[in-house]
Structures are given as C-alpha cells and as structure tokens.
Amino acid sequence: ESNLVVRSNYKIFKIIAFSLGGLVVLWLIYDFIKSFKKIDKNYVNANTSFLKKDYKGALNLYKIASELDPENLYAIEGQARSLMRMKKYKESEETFKLVLEKNNEFVPALTNIAILYDTIGEYNRAIIYYRKALIQDKRVSKRMSWLKRFIKNIQLKPSTIQERLFYLEEQLKLDIGKR
Q1: What string of DSSP letters covers 84-115?
Q2: What pTM value is reported for the model?
Q3: Which tens digit of pLDDT belongs to each residue from 121-140?
Q4: Integer distance in angstroms from the first to the last C-alpha of the chain?
Q5: Can you say how many angstroms the Cα of residue 171 is from the centroid of all Cα atoms in its chain?
Q6: Alpha-carbon distances of 86 from 31, 110, 116, rounded to whole Å
Q7: Helix (H) or strand (E) holding 28
C-alpha cells in the first residue's frame, strides 16, 4: 500500500513538473515573439552604420528610430554620438542634454557627454560628467577584455573612464605651464 502511495505521489509530482516546465517554455516563446516585434530595424542598422564609421547614415537612421519611438533614449543618444563623430559639437551637446533632461541617470549619455567635453577641451565639465557616470554605474570603470579587443582588432588598451578622470584631475592641479 505504501509503495502505491509513493508511485502515485511520484506521478503527481512528475505531472506538475512537466506542466510547469511547459508553462515556462510557452512563456519564453511568447516573450521572444513579443520582444522581437519591438526591435527597431532602423536602430539596429544605425548601430551597424555607426560601427562602420558611416556617421551621417547612422545619424539619419537614429533619427528615424527616435521618431518612431520618442522614448528610446538609446536612439537619441546615438544621434548625439554621431554628431560628435561628425565634429558637430554644439548639436551633439544639445542632443546629449536632451537625453539627460529625460533621464539624468542615463549612463551612456553621461559617459559620452563627458567624452565630448574632454574632446573639445572643457575638462572641468568632462570631470563632472565622468564622476556622475561612475556614480551611476561602476561598470564604466572596467577595462575592455582582451578577447573583445582581439575580436574588434584593437591593439592598444584604451584607458577607462576612471583612469581618464584621474588623469584630468591630476593635470588640472598642475600649473598651466606644466600640463
């Protein structure tokens, strides 16, 4: 009799386990389909253009993506990065600020506006935004792994945000003639 109880409990447990497993699989399929529809091809193509250094093409595609989804901060921030690479610094700054007005903790915009200020020689402003980016997300202080550098064919180790911040702070402590 106890053997019969154990077998029936095992069968019930097995049915429950397979049912829950099936529900999880169905939920994963549903979530994939739902998320797949949200992926904007313009945004994906903009990223591809940006990586190929086609900044004008990327800018146009980021604009289309942000018009279709005005809340997509990544698309707006992509416009700002493209403008920065095209040396349209004032427009880039305005676009980064637009992103930060919508979300003042958006790490990609904080980091890249710092890089913009660093690029144009506004080091005190760069320091402010480098610090804000580091406060929001400590991961920006980490170096790119050797494998990613190898895959992207980057020979030199790029400096981290934290290293650049430290360098700028130390340089600004020196007299102008010694920088």
Answers
A1: HHTT-HHHHHHHHHHHHHH-TT-HHHHHHHHH
A2: 0.69
A3: 999 999 999 999 988 877 66
A4: 89
A5: 29
A6: 38, 19, 12
A7: helix 2-38
